[in-house]
Amino acid sequence: MVPSIKAETVLTVKEAIEAFKNTGKVNAVVEGYIIGYTTGPSKYTNDSSKFADTNIAIADEPGETDPAKIMPVQLPPGEVRKAVNVKDHPEHVGKKVRLTGTLELYFSSPGLKSVTAYQFEGGQQEKVQDVQISPNGGTVDKGATVTLSTSTEGATIYYTLDGMTPTMQSLVYTAPFTISKDVVVKAMAVKEGLASSNITTAAFLVKNEKPVRIHDIQGTSHISPYEGKNVFDVEGVVTVVDNNGFYMQDIKPDEDMATSEAIYIFKRQSGVKPGDLVAVDGEVDEYVGAGYSDKMKTDLAGTQIKASRLTVKESNVVLPSSIVLGKDGLHIPSEIIDNDSFSVFDPSEDAIDFYESLEGMLVEVRKAVVAGPQKYGDVFVTVDNGTSELRTRGGTPILAAGDYNPERLSIKAGRTFVAKAGDFFKGNITGVVGYDYGNYRIIPIGQLPELQDGGLQRERSAIKPAIDKVTVATFNIENFSANPEQTSDEKVQGLAAAIIHNLNMPDIIAVQEMQDNNGTVNDGTTDASLSAKRLIDAIRANKGPGYKYVDVAPENNQDGGAPGANIRVGFLYNPTRVQFVQSADHKNLLPQNPMRIGTDNPLFNDTRKPLAAEFQFKGQNFVVISNHLNSKIGDATPFGKIQPIVLGSESKRVELATEVNRFMKNIVDTKKNAVVIAVGDMNDFQFSKPLQTLKGDIMTNMMETLPLETRYTYIHDGNAQVLDHILVTNNAALYTKVQPVHINAEFMYEHGKVSDHDPVVAQIDLKKVRKAS
Predict the structure, then answer these.
(1) 288 touches 327 (CB < 8 A)
(2) What domain of life does the native source organism fall in (predicted)?
(3) 754: in domain
């Protein structure tokens, strides 16, 4: 049971924020001025063109702008939202309001949720909470029990069963009642001293008296109210046919935007075609299809009917009109996937509910821009959604803390489809909304429209070689080995060209995913010297520098990755520019060179051990650490059934980052003014707990110094994100410049990409660091 602050106590916004910090979740009454609308964590606006009806923001002063003094308030669907929201009532901005609800974390800040009552200053009367009818209508068995309730204690519920408006002379609710025929239940709640509630309505159809329609089966939930039950004569027009069945959509929709009008019918060799009007008998099933369900059990289920009987009633029926997604039609929630753990079905605010409300339905996507390369047959796109969102040079949404950009749309395009970020479709895409592998996807009807090249080109680093400055790069070279059957000559030449021409031949390249000499042949080989030589020879043959390579081979199959491949981190370095420190000297920064971190630490079991190496440039020693932290396998998917999302792999990365930070701190504490550079594929984002832990108070993550639109090295499911980082000790940050070189993440191999990660290059003026010290 949630504790409550005394009912007679009315908190200011400041007091409410402090109360939440001190007590956590607690029921309370909060009073403040409406200052506008919450657009994101610590982001508020009084621009009415950006208002929606899902929340308000309140403060103790009507003109407050300090996010720390503002409280976001979630408005639940129903009377409270209708009466209080600023989209429909922009005149509310500046008004003082008293709200009863629960202090909880909302938009990552102390907020107010589950609001049950409101009262504006000036005497607007508080209302009795609306009656909840359970079940909330639909097709039921004869004799089904109906329950009425209101959250306002002491209220009396009056109801009717004939569709008439209830009054205080109507039936008084005292106990659940049963349904034996088709009825329309209307109910209201009354309490002395309060305004009467709104009238709640629910229509019930007794099974076999009227056929069930698709929207009854879909309901306003992710799980059908008919799950496991048999339904009869369910009617719809066929829209898309596949090997296992077909999608059909009702031609007589209801007026509730929260209920989908389409459903998948499981029936192999059905013999139907698009445009057939059919009637189906069968069992309603919540089916988890192709995806991650077996491994992580996070995929959502799709509602389907396992057909036992199928009748074609008519052919060549005109298909229902498609719902346009985006600014020209239905706005896609662009900030929140789910913020209530599925407790409230709210398609207007929660993107996961939005897409569920369109399950199986015909939708239309206009002016779609490709957000990333095709992968596994899927292409993510963006449309004009009527909002201003941060995008990369190619138009890819940028992942931010708390914002997974749910407005991204996935299109089933096929594995032979070639597309890169920034390309765009010249026509509209029409399809039905499906789901697999942790994402809602649009299954196109017919051929996709022509794709126009957006002109995006692979970059060349603006960081040029400098006589008096050292350049360091990090590059995940994606499962590279000397085995020609696993690593093609084309890839070898592509990597060599990228290092020479796109990266401008860095002095040191920390590489990740270097495999042993025979790749995934599991014969006990761990040495990678031939793999490195293959790349070094290609660079030299293309008139690049004569790099040398250093690593420490892992024990066989002890560092994770593909069995037999013995994936590891290592360094390429140009001996004409930097010297690999070999002599033992008390002035050295490392006790041995190179040295692996965590060799005796069980935290690093089945994980690539970071490798620290000491180099010298123009008489100054410095340390570079190449990292490849554990992968994100184990994290729930953003559009999965675990909400809020659980990052199962994160805690280990935090622990690994703690150990690497401790290693670096020991160098800094022992050797005054030492320069340490930590680089690599960290498998996490700059704002994440692991990267903040790795940084600690001794390092600066140079990726955080870049313009937001350039902060990405990887694109996953249409989200641009930083996985590859370069951090330097704080003493070197001012004299370091960095650039992620966008040559891979936005492209397919058909466009010349050579890895799935973009490399990052940094240039450091060690002389200035030394002088400043």
Answers:
(1) no
(2) Bacteria
(3) yes
> Of the residues 279, 314, 349, which one is the last residue of a structural domain?
314
Mean pLDDT on 759-772: 95
Measure the CA–CA gap between 409 and 95, rounded to whole angstroms: 38
Query: Encoding tokens for residue 302?
Result: 């799709």
Residue 4's pLDDT band, with cuts at 50, 70 and 90, is: low
pTM of the predicted model as reported, rounded to 2 decimal places = 0.78
298-352 per-position pLDDT tens digit: 899 999 999 999 999 999 999 999 999 999 999 999 989 999 899 899 999 999 9
At 651 the three-state DSSP class reads helix
Query: What string of DSSP letters covers 528-574?
Result: -HHHHHHHHHHHHHTT----EEE--PPPTT-S-SSTTT--EEEEEE-
What pLDDT is recorded for position 209?
A: 60
With CA atoms as reference, report the closest residue to 320 among 215, 242, 250: 250
**Domain that residue 156 falls in:** 132-206
Q: How confident is the model at residue 46 (pLDDT cuts 50, 70, 90)?
A: confident
CATH number at residue 194: 2.60.40
Assigned domain for 437 exists:
no
Shared domain for 646 and 673, answered yes or no, is yes
Residue 549 pairs in a beta bridge with 572
Query: How far is the CA of 736 from the CAs of 235, 624, 675, 720, in angstroms?
Result: 66, 14, 11, 24
Strand-pair partners of 616 = 579, 621
Shared domain check, 251 and 187: no
Whether residue 636 is contained in a domain is answered as yes
pLDDT at 401: 92
Given this model, what pLDDT does residue 289 score? 81
Helices marked H in 648-728: 650-670, 689-695
271, 293, 314 — which closes off a domain?
314
Q: Which residues of 605-629 are buried (b: 16+ CB within 10 A; e: fewer)?
A: eebbbbbbbbbbbeeebbbbbbbbb
